[in-house]
Design goal:
alpha/beta; Rossmann fold; eight-stranded mixed beta sheet; three-stranded mixed beta sheet; 13 strands; globular; disordered N terminus
């Protein structure tokens, strides 16, 4: 399974699709300039002739930064991609009622809104890229846009892996974290020497960049390519004690037919890997999303937002986090 939306054919399909770019902002938003409050959306120059799309809303501290999964744009946090009628309140606007929240598009990401696909609003870059390059881009973006810390990083799938790298690289900036069905290096030892190669092979298409017509290459980071770097980072700069919430999916992945890597075999191992992340710091909270597949932030946006807001409350009042362990199984 992929570190993003778990589709081994998704990138191959992209080459035949027509992409659109929705406006970066509506009449209610302002351009992103350092210190601007209220709703902002637009392109931020991060240096080197590159611009990245960023949108922010709400007021208060800490600032929640939403980090999407591999090849997924900010729309996974802001828009109801299910085209539900009436539309649901998604994670971004729900969190914005309590604190400042920001989301951004990495280069080459995209989202399907209804029957249309919308490409990243950020400048394309040559692919494949690396987890650490994505970390560097996020840091440059937050600095260039003047987004005040400290940050709570709320991240899905491969974005969770990036966020842990960010927290180890810039430990003074991160005070809380929410890992939403996040990829981790723990999968490798948990799946073991017989099943791990099968999992890597299943995700091998992630290593092949695909050209998006009229844009550039789709985001590509080879599966498991950051595992050794993460292990080194956790040795030299482990995650600091902080409010941490970990969310795990309950609905099984649909896997290709392989008698040795069925959903029945894989799902307990995936759950074990999520629980291992909950042990990264003391007193973490674990949420088992019973109504969700991998995209918990789309399947259960209210649950995801609740986990984020619990972490925000824990950052603001640490005693409430460590003295009261809320019942977190939903």
């Amino acid at each position: 399974m992929s570190t993003s939306r778990i589709s081994v054919v998704a990138l191959c399909v992209l080459a035949t699709m027509v992409f659109a770019v929705m406006p970066a902002a509506d009449a209610q938003t302002q351009p992103v300039t350092p210190g601007t409050q209220g709703d902002v959306a637009g392109l931020v120059d991060i240096g080197g002739g590159r611009k990245i799309y960023l949108e922010c809303s709400g007021q208060g501290s800490p600032t929640v930064v939403l980090v999407a999964g591999l090849d997924s744009s900010a729309r996974y946090w802001t828009d109801d991609l299910s085209a539900a009628d009436p539309p649901r309140t998604m994670v971004f606007p729900r969190v914005a009622t309590t604190t400042r929240v920001c989301a951004y598009d990495r280069p080459g990401t995209y989202a399907e809104v209804g029957k249309e696909l919308f490409v990243s609003r950020s400048d394309p870059i040559p692919q494949p890229t690396t987890f650490m390059a994505s970390v560097s881009d996020l840091h440059s973006l937050l600095q260039a846009a003047g987004i005040p810390g400290p940050y709570v990083l709320a991240a899905h799938s491969a974005g969770g892996f990036m966020s842990r790298m960010y927290a180890s690289t810039y430990p003074d900036e991160v005070v809380g974290m929410v890992l939403v069905d996040a990829y981790s290096e723990f999968l490798e030892p948990i799946f073991g020497p017989k099943l791990w190669p099968k999992l890597v092979k299943l995700n091998a298409p992630d290593a092949k960049p695909v050209q998006i017509p009229g844009y550039g290459q789709a985001e590509t980071i080879p599966y498991a390519s950051g595992n050794d770097q993460m292990r080194q980072l956790t040795k030299t700069s482990p995650l600091r004690p902080m409010p941490l919430a970990v969310l795990a999916h309950a609905r099984p992945f649909a896997l290709p037919k392989d008698p040795k890597l069925t959903s029945k075999v894989a799902e307990p191992l995936l759950l074990k890997a999520n629980k291992a992340q909950a042990k990264l710091v003391p007193d973490s909270r674990f949420f088992y999303a019973k109504k969700s597949g991998h995209d918990i932030h789309q399947d259960q946006p209210a649950l995801t937002a609740e986990a984020i807001l619990q972490v925000v409350a824990g950052v603001r009042s640490p005693d409430t986090w460590y003295s009261l362990q809320a019942c977190c199984r939903k």
